[in-house]
Amino acid sequence: MHNLSIIILAAGKGTRMKSNIVKVLHPLAGQPMILYSVQTAQALAPEKLVVVVGHQGKAVETILKPAGITTVLQKEQLGSGHAVAVTEGVLSNFTGTVLIMCADVPLISTATLNRFLQRHRESRAVVSVLTVIVADPSGYGRIVRNEAGALRAIVEHRDADDATKAIQEINTGIYCCEAPFLFYALKKIVPDNNQGEYYLTDIIALAVKEKQPAAAILTDNFTEVKGINDRIELAEAGQVMMQRILKQHMQEGVGIIDPATTYIDYAVRIGPDTVIYPNTSIRGASVIGSNCIIDMNCIISNSVIGDGVHIKPASVIDESFIGAHATIGPFAHLRPQTRIEEGGRIGNFVEVKKSRIGKGSKANHLTYIGDTTIGEGVNIGAGTITCNYDGTAKHPTVIEDGAFIGSNTSLVAPVTVGKGAVIGAGSTITKDVPPGALAVGRGRQTNYEQWFRVSRRGRKTKEPEKNKP
231-439: what CATH class? Predict the structure, then answer.
């Protein structure tokens, strides 16, 4: 937006979170809380966007670095007015409108901010504050108006008398200021309050005192402007954000059977006609194609799933790729760096780690596949294990196209099973198997006839009766 700069305040610690993690880095629907404010600000296309950091500033800067955000360090937390003042060097040549936001207000929408900016500019005020009326204003700064309804001051709750505390219109902490007045006023305010802090709210009183126009602009959506101060409010904001995310997916053609028990992170992308069943969590930057079925109780994290895939109940998929029309589960576990190609089948109680399963290959039952490359059209029998770890290092297994691995086989890596080879059930394979060969690696069966079990006392058990004619 032309002639607009934005400051986001993110220097506070967030003591009431009772956490070693600074408040603005706590996750909300799959991404740090601060990123919602940043993304909303970016949607307004400001000329400059500055984030004020303080506690754990380096960690916050690391999160913001990929977006190329300018940060300014507030070394001492001396109040909101001081936090804005430290940005003057970055905005020294800017003479337009400055929008001031808070990083702990993640639900604010671009629509609300656009309306606020428009009303501020229409009013020709040098400073405007976004306000809202609430039933319980405890803890919030109160909006004090004169008899004509014009803004006179903002009084913090801890500095308010009983009459002021009865006011239900509160300060949201979101401001619009004309830059020349903002930085002029910040030099005038003093820490004349119970906390000994430089309050940003005091610029309102200064504007009124100097007969400069100041405006209080009311919004009717408290949910959007509510800040997060503790874990209870974080959970409440998470529920609101989750419903927004689910609603957007449903509007785009995704079927969600029970939104109350479905959890989809902010960055997830899902194609139309995919159906998500209850108690499912889709996390991180996962991408799911069209016409998929994600059954109940599945967890999918940072994975890519092609079109027409069926993820059966209680499957866990992490940092994996699944090609189109594959079937996974139930009770399957795909660990990081797993790749299932088109039409692959991974069945119940199968674990796959750092492996590639070729087109149309299948492992339907009770199998562990690790550090393995499997070609196309391979059958992995029930109970097969790739023995990839020798106690010191991991080793690879290669199973070429069209091979057949019998049930209960142990493949001791490093080992290669050639194209079209067959492994007999129950084998332990320690050497490479040539293409087209049959490999059997098990002890020969011996039957001892007329054998009677001997008890611990050395007595023979009763001989079974002979069959009568």
Answer: mainly beta
